């Protein structure tokens, strides 16, 4: 049975057996089921970093007094991913869209760091480093392809005077992407989910200026068009599924003002403007088709940001804030751009996670989950949540009775489909390994 057939079978079986997984069909279940994510060990404090496209796998890490270990949660519970040999702590940065691969960073007592890739077959593996740049790292979640076969990141020299963007795949290994003309440094800011396009920034050694770039295997590294002579310093932040659309930020020549922008496949750049009442904007997320952009804005002299959403029909629109709060920041966007989540803050008070959709506007995510029948007694959703690409699962880090803890909230149907798909994928993987073993033996 091929993996696509496994997925199709899981959807069919899930519709038949979901009462066995999510509870008796005679009992009304919450529309979205909130549950804490189990720690690896009693007393661990766990944090969420990323989520798969269908919400079936969540990546993060758990801290104890002695170690920090990357974790992958699925329907079977928490799985520790281990450590690179000699490392002191490892953190998850991202999960592949299909949930099968986790990537992150391991730190060593020497102060060096290495990027790891984990899957169920090979376990945790070091991706290596670049010549003269042995310190490699990831600092964002949009740096792995949907199937986990491509990873992008950065490597630096010991003294951090050399920074080089890299792309890794299982055939070519880790490869430096170079720099744009008249620059000496390059840094990653994103990867298209099909793995073909890398985006980032190239700059001189003192980072006094910056140029955005888009890289692919055919054309190499190409500069993204600046917005104007008044806004010449641009930094891409996210790419659409195939990299044909890229969003980001362009800074003014005096670096006092920023504006959200979007580039298309022809490298034409478009200012997305600024929401009413604000003076600058910052784009961080883009939908899979490139039609929706999300980010934050502010009034320049304000300490509080305001989340926005942009599309070609409505332009750039501020989402507003939760009642009693001063500002909100975007932390995730669904694949089709219809659901946006983030964190609202109030001066000196506990922050609160929000969810936005066109029908309801901005709502308190904790209140939404509680209204759907979940018991969130003692929980504060006080860290920025993530939403799966299909928009059916939320996850994040919060506090419960004063202690940090990880949580996930899938729709029951999404949870059952994901569990069955993972089980079927595991069966297929075991069969594939058995066939390979037989071919090697006989």
Task: Please give a structural write-up.
- This protein has 442 residues and is mainly beta.
- 13% of the residues lie in helices and 42% in strands.
- The protein is built from three helices and 33 strands.
- Strands 1, 30, 31, 32 and 33 form a five-stranded antiparallel β-sheet that branches. A four-stranded antiparallel β-sheet has the order 2-3-4-5. Strands 6-7-8-9 form a four-stranded antiparallel β-sheet, with no helix packed on it.
- Helix 1 crosses helix 3.
- The longest helix is centred in the C-terminal third of the chain and has 30 residues.
- The N terminus and C terminus are likely disordered.
Radius of gyration equals 22 Å
Fraction in helix: 10-25%
- N- to C-terminal separation? 22 Å
| Most strands sheet | 5 strands, antiparallel
Mean pLDDT: 87
How big a fraction of the residues is strand? Answer: 35-45%
**Class based on secondary structure composition and strand pairing:** mainly beta
Spans where pLDDT lies below 50 across 5 or more residues: 1-28, 415-442
Please state the overall shape, judged from the principal axes of the Cα atoms: globular
Features:
mainly beta; five-stranded antiparallel beta sheet; 33 strands; disordered N terminus; single chain; 13% helix; four-stranded antiparallel beta sheet; 3 helices
């Amino acid at each position: 049975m091929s993996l696509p057939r496994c997925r199709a079978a899981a959807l069919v079986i899930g519709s038949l057996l979901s009462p066995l997984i999510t509870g008796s069909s005679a009992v009304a279940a919450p529309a979205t089921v909130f549950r804490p994510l189990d720690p690896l060990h009693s007393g661990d404090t766990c944090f969420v970093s990323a989520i798969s496209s269908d919400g079936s796998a969540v990546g993060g890490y758990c801290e104890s007094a002695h170690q920090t270990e990357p974790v992958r949660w699925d329907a079977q519970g928490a799985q520790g991913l281990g450590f690179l040999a000699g490392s002191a702590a490892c953190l998850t940065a991202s999960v592949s869209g299909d949930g099968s691969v986790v990537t992150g960073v391991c730190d060593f007592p020497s102060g060096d760091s290495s990027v790891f890739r984990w899957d169920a077959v090979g376990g945790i593996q070091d991706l290596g480093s670049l010549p003269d740049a042995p310190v490699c790292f990831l600092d964002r979640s949009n740096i792995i392809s949907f199937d986990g076969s491509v990873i992008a990141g950065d490597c630096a020299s010991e003294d951090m005077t050399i920074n080089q963007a890299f792309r890794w795949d299982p055939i070519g290994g880790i490869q430096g992407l170079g720099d744009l003309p008249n620059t000496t440094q390059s840094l990653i800011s994103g990867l298209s989910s099909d793995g073909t396009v890398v985006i980032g920034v190239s700059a001189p050694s003192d980072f006094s200026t910056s140029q955005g770039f888009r890289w692919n295997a055919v054309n190499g590294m190409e500069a993204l068009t600046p917005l104007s002579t008044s806004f010449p310093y641009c930094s891409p932040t996210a790419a659409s599924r195939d990299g044909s659309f890229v969003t980001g930020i362009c800074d003014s020549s005096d670096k006092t003002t920023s504006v959200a922008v979007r580039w298309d496949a022809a490298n034409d750049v478009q200012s997305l403007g600024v929401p009413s009442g604000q003076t600058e904007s910052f784009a961080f997320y883009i939908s899979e088709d490139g039609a929706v952009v999300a980010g934050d804005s502010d009034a320049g002299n304000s300490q509080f940001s305001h989340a926005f959403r942009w599309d070609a029909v409505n332009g750039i629109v501020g989402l507003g804030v939760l009642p009693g709060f001063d500002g909100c920041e975007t932390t995730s966007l669904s694949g089709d751009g219809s659901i946006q989540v983030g964190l609202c803050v109030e001066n000196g008070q506990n922050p609160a996670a929000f969810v936005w959709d066109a029908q309801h506007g901005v709502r308190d995510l904790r209140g939404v989950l509680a209204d759907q029948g979940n018991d969130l007694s003692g929980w504060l959703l006080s860290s920025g949540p993530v939403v799966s690409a299909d928009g059916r699962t939320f996850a994040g880090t919060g506090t419960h009775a004063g202690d940090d803890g990880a949580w996930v909230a899938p729709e029951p149907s999404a949870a059952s489909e994901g569990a069955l798909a993972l089980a079927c994928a595991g069966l297929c993987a075991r069969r594939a390994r058995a066939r390979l073993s037989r071919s090697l033996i006989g």
